[in-house]
Amino acid sequence: MKTRKYIIFIILFLVLGLVVLVGSISYQFGVSYGESHAEEIRSSQIKNVSGVETEKFANVQLVINKSYPVKVSSSGRVIPGTIINISTEVQGVLNSSINLKKGTSFSRGDLLFKIRDIDAKLMLAARKSNYLSLWTSVLPDLATDHSEQYEKWYAFFNGIVVDQPLADFPSFSSAREKNFIISRNLLAEYLNIKSDEYKLTKYQQTAPFNGSIIEAYSDQGAIVNPGSPIIQIMRNDELEIEIPVPVKYMQQIKVGSKVTLNENGINFKGTVLRKGDFINSKTQSVPVYVKPSKNHSLYYGMYVEAYLEFENTHEVSRIPRKAVFGKNQIYELKKDSTIKTISINVRSSDDKFYYVDNLKDSTLFVNQPLINAKDNTKITPVF
C-alpha cells in the first residue's frame, strides 16, 4: 500500500517537472526569436499600417470677386499738437512764479518765468527823464513857431510818466511842423524809448496756451544769456496720434477720414488731420496724423491701436491668410477632388486677408493649412 503511494507521488512529481521544463524552453525560444526577428516584425507592422489610406478632410471656399473694404491696422503714438522750446532773449537772473520742473501744468496767460529786470527798468526811467528834459527845452520854440499845434504837443509832453509806456506819437499837420520836430531829435528819441519798452517785455514769459512742462533746462536763480533754452512745453488740449501707414494706401486715405482707435481695450473714434509727404526709410511707411475724440483721456507718449477702413478700387477675391503658403500660393480643388498648387497675385492685404486679382469666380480653394499635402492629393471637401 505504501509502495503504491510512493509510485503515484513520483509520477506526479515527474509530470510537474516536465511541464515546467517545457514552459521554460518555450519562453526562451520566444524571447530569442523575438530578438532575432524584431526588425522583420517591425517592418511588417509598418507595411500593414502604410498600406491603409487615410482620408483627408479640408475646408474649401468659393472665390467671389467684388470690391471689398480694405482694413489696415497700425500702432500709433500720442504726440502733442504743439510743442515748443522757450528761450530767453535777455541776460539776467532767472526767477519763476511756478515750479520749473517736468510735469508742471499751467494755463494760458500764466507767468512762466521772469528775468530780473530792475536794471533795465532803471535805465528806461532815466532815458524817459532825459526825454522830458528835451521836450522842456523845445516847447518854448514850439509855442512861438507853431502856436496852432502847441496844445497837441504839450498834451503829449504832459502825459509822459517815467514808469508808464509812452502814448502814441502825435501825427504831423504840415511838412514844416514835421521838419521842426525831427530836427530836434524828438521822434528819434521817442522810437528809441519805445524799443526799450518792447525789450523790457522780454524779461518775462507768459504761457501761450494751456499745457505742461515736458523738459526744464534751467533752475531758479540761474544766470541765463540770450538764446539760452529755459523750458520745453506742450499743449495738452490738442493731442494727436501719429500712425505709420504703408505707402501703398496713401491714395485711399483722405483728410477727414474716420479712424477707429483702441487704447487698453476701449474703442473710440478719430479723424485724419493730415498726411505726411515723406517716407520713413526704415519702415517704408508714411505718417498719418489723427485727431482723437475728446471723450477719451490720452497722454503724451501713449501707444494706441488704429484701424483704418476704405473701399478697394478694384474687384478682387478675398483669401484668408491661413490658406496661403510658400510664395503666395494656395491649393485649388479640382473636379476630381484632388488639389493643385496655384499662385495668387496679391493686390493688397490686411491682418486677416489677402486681396487677389487673378482668380476666377467660382474657383474652389482650400481655406485652411494642409499638413503633408501635395499636388494630386485627394481630399474630402467640407463646405
Break the fold down into its secondary structure elements and pairings.
Blueprint: H1 2-36, H2 38-50, E1 56-62, E2 69-80, E3 83-87, E4 92-95, E5 105-106, E6 111-115, H3 118-145, H4 150-158, H5 175-183, H6 186-201, E7 204-206, E8 211-216, E9 223-224, E10 229-235, E11 239-246, E12 258-263, E13 266-275, E14 285-292, E15 303-311, E16 317-320, E17 329-333, E18 339-343, E19 346-349, E20 353-356, E21 364-366, E22 379-382
Parallel strand pairs: 1-22
Antiparallel strand pairs: 1-21, 2-11, 2-15, 3-10, 4-6, 4-9, 5-8, 6-7, 8-10, 11-14, 12-13, 12-15, 13-14, 16-20, 17-18, 19-20
Helix pairs in contact: 3-4, 3-6
Short note summarizing the structure:
The protein is an alpha+beta fold and 383 residues long. It has 6 helices and 22 strands.
Characterization of this structure:
This protein has 6 helices and 22 strands. With 383 residues, it is of the alpha+beta class. The strands form 6 sheets. Strands 2-11-14-13-12-15 form a 6-stranded antiparallel β-barrel. It has a 4-stranded antiparallel β-sheet with strand order 3-10-8-5, with no helix packed on it. It has a 4-stranded antiparallel β-sheet with strand order 7-6-4-9, with no helix packed on it. The longest helix is centred in the first third of the chain and has 35 residues.
Number of domains: 5
Helix proportion range: 25-40%
Q: Give the CATH architecture of the largest domain.
A: Beta Barrel
Would you report the number of β strands? Answer: 22
Largest sheet composition: 6 strands, antiparallel, barrel
Q: Strand order, main sheet: write it out.
A: 2-11-14-13-12-15
Broad shape: elongated
How widely separated are the two ends?
89 Å
> CATH first level of the largest domain: which class?
Mainly Beta
